[in-house]
Design the sequence.
């Protein structure tokens, strides 16, 4: 059910971002405003999801082993690194 909500939200954002049947070029200012609006919303959601992972540390409610904690954070760090690379500028090849 949660995945369905995520998909619905994604499609709603896509519909909001691109009006159906219309292809209009956005100005640089509009692109920046769109980036900031959507980026702020997504970063807030990501930070909240990470914060609530901390609830799993409550030993009164959950049992876990350090290996599972390490795997959880490795997955998060890998996804973050993968995404961060997408924002890096491509550099021309050089032997230097």
Sequence:
């Amino acid at each position: 059910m949660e995945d369905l909500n995520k998909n619905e939200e994604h499609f709603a954002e896509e519909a909001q971002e691109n009006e159906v049947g219309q292809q209009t070029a956005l100005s640089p200012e509009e692109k920046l405003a769109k980036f900031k609006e959507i980026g702020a919303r997504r970063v807030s959601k990501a930070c909240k999801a990470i914060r609530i992972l901390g609830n799993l540390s409550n030993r009164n409610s959950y049992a876990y082993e350090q290996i599972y904690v390490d795997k959880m954070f490795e997955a998060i760090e890998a996804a973050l690194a993968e995404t961060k690379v997408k924002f890096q500028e491509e550099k021309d090849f050089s032997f230097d």
